[in-house]
Known about the structure:
Largest sheet: 9 strands, mixed
Shape: globular
CATH class of the largest domain: Alpha Beta
Order of helices and strands: EEHEEHHEEEHEEEEHEHEEEH
Number of helices: 7
CATH topology of the largest domain: D-amino Acid Aminotransferase, Chain A, domain 2
Amino acid sequence: MLGMPKDKYCIYNGHLISIYEPSIAFNNRAFRYGDALFETIRLCNNKLMFLKDHLNRLKIGMTVLRMNLPAEFNSENIYEFIIQLLKHNTHAPNARIRLTVFRNEGGYYSPETNDISFLIESEEMTHTYELNQKGYWIDLFGDLKKPVNKLSNIKTANALLYVMAGIAKQSMKLDECFILNETGAVCESISSNVFVVKNGTLYTPPLTEGCVAGIMRKQIMHLAHENKILVFESPLSNYTILNGDEVFLCNSVNGVKWVGQFREKFYTNKMAQFFHDKLMQLTV
C-alpha cells in the first residue's frame, strides 16, 4: 500500500507482531518510570556487528537493575529473532536494530516483580559506516551534569539528560555537545564516546568518569592495541581537548565521526580516518 512504512513488524517476547498491534500495557514500567534498558545494534553489509558485546552489556545492566534473566534470553535466540525480523521487514543489507528490555508492569516505584519483557525493532539504513566529510562543530552542554554511579555505564531508558543536551545542541546550531560529569570533566557526547588524539596517542575517559561503556569505544581500543597505538584512559578537561590534535566520537550505529571545531580550536582527522578504515574492514 502506498505510504506504508517498510518496518511493519517487531518482535515482542519472541513473537513476531505488527507494529500496529497494541501489545504494551498502559502501565508499562518503561513508560512510567524509565525502568528499562536498551541496546542499538548495527547491521552492516548483512552482518550483525558486535552482537555478543551488546548482549553482554545488556546482561550486566540487567544485573545492576536486579532484573531476572530468563534462560531463553540468550545470544542464539536473540540472533534468530533479529534475523527473523529483518527478513519480514526486508531490512538489508544495512539496518539499525533496537533491543529494549523492561521490567514487567506492577507496583509503583517498588516493583511487584523483577521478571522482564523484551521488544526488538528494526529500521532500514541506506549505508554502512560513513566518515563525515565535514568535521563536527561541537561545544559543551553545561546545564546538567551527569552523575557518576553504577547506573552511569549502562544504557537505561532514563535519557532526559541527553534529550536536554539534544535540545541545547539544536538551539546552538551545533552538530554535537559534550556531556560533563559531576566534577565538570567531559565524559562523553550526547550519543557517543569521546577520544582525543595527541602526538599519535589516544586519550579517552575511563568508565569511572561516568561515560557509557560503549561497544564502539571497546572496538576502537582493541583496534588501537592491535595496531600498536597507545591508549590512555584519563579524565578529559577542556584543556586536554583544546590541546589535542584530533577529537573524534564513536558509537555502534554511526561508527567514527571526527570533530572539526571546539571553541576556537580546529582539528584534523587523520586518526579518525584510520579507525574508520579499520572498522570498515570488519564489515566485510
